[in-house]
Amino acid sequence: MATKKLIFRALCLVGIFLFFISAVESKEGESMPNNPFGALEFLSWDHDWNSYKYPSEEELEKAVFLMKEAGVSIVRMDFLWRDIEPEEGVFDFSKYDTIVEVVTRNNLQILGLLNYCVEWASPCGQWNYPSGDNCAFVNYACKTIEHYKGKIKYWEVWNEPDSSTYWQPQDGLKGYCSLLKEVYLAAKEVDPECIILNGGLANGLASVNKLYDNGAKDYFDILNIHFFENPLNPNTIKAVAAYPRLAYKVMSRNGDSHKKIWITEIGCPGVKPGTDTKKWWMGKNPTEKQQAKWLTDVYTVLLKDKNVEKIFWAFFRDCHEHWGTGVDYFGIVRWDFSKKPAYTSYLKCFKEWGKSASHK
After folding, report:
1. Is 125 exposed, middle or buried (0-12, 13-18, 19+ CB in 10 A)?
2. C-alpha triplet 72, 304, 300: angle, nearest 5°
3. Residue 12's pLDDT is what?
4. DSSP class of residue 223?
5. Are the CB atoms for 67 and 108 separated by under 8 Å?
6. pLDDT given at position 1
7. Which pLDDT value is given to residue 94?
8. Rounded CA separation 84/139 (Å)
9. What does DSSP assign to residue 86?
10. Beta bridge partners of 314
11. Which residues are within 8 A (CB) of 330 and not within 5 positions of it... i.e. 6 or more apart?
12. Please, what's the b/e burial string for 66-104 (b: 16 or more CB within 10 A of its CB; e: otherwise)?
């Protein structure tokens, strides 16, 4: 009888242990503040120009559930000026309040993108032509940071300001660095705990150098870079490994060796054979299987770099005829929310990282 009781107790202990392990694994991403897995997703897109990607809370819940399941710890998303202050001095955060509630309720962090220009402030009424006077943008940025104080810690000022697609006219980052400085100083007054990232740089080391040459060193807390390679080309993974190492050398040379690097955009298309779409800007579109392998390669290599703190896959979910090229298929889930092979790769990379992190 005593033996049976001992066996019963042992089985109970095993059951409790297995339950505990399961609970830890299910919350692994949200309970580890150093989780490096991020994703870019356009959760605020509910406009005609983006096919109303997230027209209701139902779609938001689906996307966020899948992110959490995959191990995503932080989502990079727009807080568009045109949505928040459509008329000068008239602020409306209701749309973003809903999104932030869904994301934070699921224990994901947010990297908020403060961009672009609103029509009434642009010198020519275009979203990618910033005003020559930074005051209005700084005001919108500070109102937004203040509104979400305590809920959102990380903020990025503009997206790819070194690209003519997103900032016109190009001036070697001079105008952008002036804006970054003003936002940084004002943001720290509003929320001293906030962390400011420069707008993700798209044009390599030249742009990293320009950031420092224009005196921006003291006006960002984390260096933010973007880079893409074509996985169909041989040995491209070596370029992925090399770029953040070279960027860190520039940082060190400028006295910024204490700062971390976030890669807030890296990815490639994953297109089903027979899909009628044009090539992406780097050439032939990879298949879904090739995308999955590339994702594994990217995370495997970049997670080894001690200076890279976060890696955001671009994007989490496919778009619908937005770009009209393979870029519409950057997601690791399809437009209908079904999972691509890359989703499985992302989850596997996260679990492998979790096992490794738990032993450190």
Report:
1. exposed
2. 60
3. 45
4. E
5. yes
6. 47
7. 97
8. 12
9. S
10. 40
11. 267, 268, 269, 270, 314, 315, 318, 319
12. bbbebbbbbbbbbbbbbbbbeeeeeeebeebeebbebbe
Other C-beta atoms closer than 10 Å to the C-beta of 308 total 21
From the first residue on, what is the mean pLDDT of each consecutive set of 10 residues in the chain (360 residues)?
A: 48 41 43 86 96 96 98 98 97 98 98 97 95 94 98 98 97 98 98 98 98 98 97 95 98 98 98 95 97 98 98 98 97 98 98 82
pLDDT score of 357? 75
pTM, 2 dp:
0.91
Residue 132 is predicted with a pLDDT of 81
CA distance 223 to 219: 10
- Please report the pLDDT score of residue 359 as a whole number: 55
Q: Are 301 and 241 in contact (CB under 8 A)?
A: yes
Q: In what order do the strands lie in the sheet with 308-314?
A: 195-198, 154-157, 109-115, 74-80, 37-40, 308-314, 261-266, 223-226
Give the count of alpha carbons within 13 A of 198, CB side only.
32
The single-letter DSSP state of residue 283 is B
Q: How far apart are CA 333 and CA 41, in angstroms?
A: 11
pLDDT of residue 356: 85
Q: What are phi and psi of 44, to 5 degrees?
A: -90, 0
Cβ-proximal residues to 3 (8 Å cutoff; 6+ apart), any chain: none
CA atoms within 13 A on the CB side of 129: 9
Tokens of 208: 């990293």
211 φ, ψ (degrees, to nearest 5): -60, -45
**DSSP three-state, residue 326:** helix
Query: CA 236: distance to chain centroid?
Result: 22
